[in-house]
Amino acid sequence: MTSAPPQTGPRAADAGHGAANRQSQIDLHRDLAPRYAYRYGFEFSRLFQEDWHGEMISHVPKGARLLLDIGCGTGFFLAELAEHHPGAVGLDISHDMLKVSDQYVPNARLVTGDAERLPFVDGGFDVVFCKGSLHHTRDHVAFLAECGRMLGPTGVLIMSEPCNDNPLIRLARKILYKKSKHFDEGDEGFTRRGIVSLTERAGFEVTLVKKYGVFAYVFAGFPDHLGILRFVPGNAWITRFLIGFDRVLCAIPGLSILGFHIVVVGRPRA
Ligand SMILES: C[S@@+](CC[C@H](N)C(=O)[O-])C[C@H]1O[C@@H](n2cnc3c(N)ncnc32)[C@H](O)[C@@H]1O
Description:
This protein is of the alpha/beta class. It has a single domain, classed as Rossmann fold (3-Layer(aba) Sandwich), CATH 3.40.50.150. The chain has helices spanning about 15-40, 45-55, 75-85, 95-105, 140-150, 165-180, 190-200, 215-220, 235-250, and strands at about 1-5, 65-70, 90, 110, 125-130, 150-160, 205-210, 260-270. The chain has an eight-stranded mixed beta sheet, sandwiched between helices. The protein is globular and about 50 Å long.
């Protein structure tokens, strides 16, 4: 595991807001690291997460070799990437999360660093992933522009972020992020239009947008928050059914507003 060298220059004098947020993300995720191991510790929750990962991995272009997972956390997704693409790199601002990654993916390259100032050379990767980390930052365009800097002209950005198109989901998230000590009040989900606009402003052409996760997301995704399925016999079978049902819902234009996450794929604009 390596740490990014200290930054110098004008960006090092970054305004207090971003710096304060980075510190609160580090503090927040120090406490969350053990919860993630628990979250992925059930057959049904792993089934859901693996399907979600499969959705993201399905957008990797043939022949891609060098993969970077930004905000890799405890490395559950990175482990799957590393299985098919040895040498996949995981970066996270939380050293405590990466210490758990070290157990899941002992052979991956793990880097402690900030997504808004990535410590890698330009064009070093074929694919950059971001699963649930963009919304933890405050300068989304800077984050996405850094993703673009990592990619060569044929590179691909694949991300999945919380979606707030549904006003009820937006309200529920707002309350949860405010009331629960497991979230940061300043974090926020995106609307479809909002995340597409941010991605384009950062220099990408958006090639795919789709919603992901409704009932399986709620009931199987996060047993550390909602653990009801733990007590239900046949929970793996139920999860498989819900995953399939969610896919149908997310594919129907009027009903896709029910989706809790949004998957966005982009390519650097020529
Ligand atoms: C919701 S977790 C997702 C973890 C992982 N991708 C997963 O799906 O299990 C968000 C992760 O983003 C990381 N993070 C937050 N702000 C970051 C930043 N500025 N740079 C890099 N990582 C950051 C957190 O430490 C945390 O591990």
